[in-house]
Design brief:
Elements (H helix, E strand, L loop, with lengths): L2 E7 L9 E6 L8 H10 L1 H8 L9 E5 L7 E6 L9 H18 L4 E4 L11 H18 L5 E7 L2 H11 L2
Parallel strand pairs: 1-6, 2-4, 2-5, 5-6
Antiparallel strand pairs: 3-4
Bound molecules: ligand AR6.
């Protein structure tokens, strides 16, 4: 397999892969958007585990079990708030790289990302998508001996078409 990138349109909580990534906030105690959907689908045990993690800094990532999800693991990462941050691209890159690093450390070989920061946190998807794609491609190149399938999960047609164009799949 080695490095594979796919683009998928739909609800990330329904995906049948080893790990899904949550676009969380620094408390890791849940919220709206994809974070709320993941907590609802995983069930209350997820919040219990998250309470013990002590939060997460922007650009960093923490891992939990997937509980009621098909995914065995959830990696929680905190994206930058676009207008409140003077180096959003760097921090968004960190989210993807640190999530992939943590996934590999845990022996994970398939991981699905939502559009981190592209909802409530205001990052325009037209700017965020190429940053996400470049960060993932770079990690795959640097870890070419490791089998990893990365799925970009898009929630709407605009981001789906954008990712399809960038990834050329
Ligand atoms: N599956 C896939 N993608 C989704 C889903 C879903 N079920 N639901 C939303 N999206 P957001 P952020 C897309 O706002 O911008 C939370 O309250 C959505 O269309 O969830 O990183 C946290 O607790 C968008 O493209 O995350 C934080 O406080 C993308 O997921 C804050 O929001 C991210 O949108 C994080 O904001």
């Amino acid at each position: 397999m080695r490095g594979i990138i796919e683009v998928y349109k739909g609800d990330i909580t329904k995906l049948d892969c080893e790990c899904i990534v949550n676009a969380a906030n620094s408390s890791l105690l849940g919220g709206g958007g994809v974070d709320g959907a993941i907590h609802r689908a995983a069930g209350p045990e997820l919040l219990r585990e998250c309470r013990g993690l002590g939060g997460c800094a922007t650009g960093q990532a923490k891992i939990t079990k997937g509980y009621k999800l098909k995914a065995k693991y959830i990696i929680h990462t905190v994206g930058p708030v676009y207008f409140a941050c003077d180096r959003p691209a760097e921090l968004l890159t960190d989210c993807y790289r640190n999530s992939l690093e943590l996934a590999a450390e845990n022996g994970i070989h398939s991981i699905a990302f939502p559009g981190i920061s592209t909802g409530v946190y205001g990052y325009p998807v037209s700017e965020a998508a190429p940053i996400a794609a470049a960060a993932v491609q770079r990690w795959l190149n640097e870890n070419s001996g490791y089998d990893m399938k990365v799925i970009f999960v898009c929630f709407d047609d605009i981001s789906y078409n954008l990712y399809k164009d960038i990834i050329k799949v």
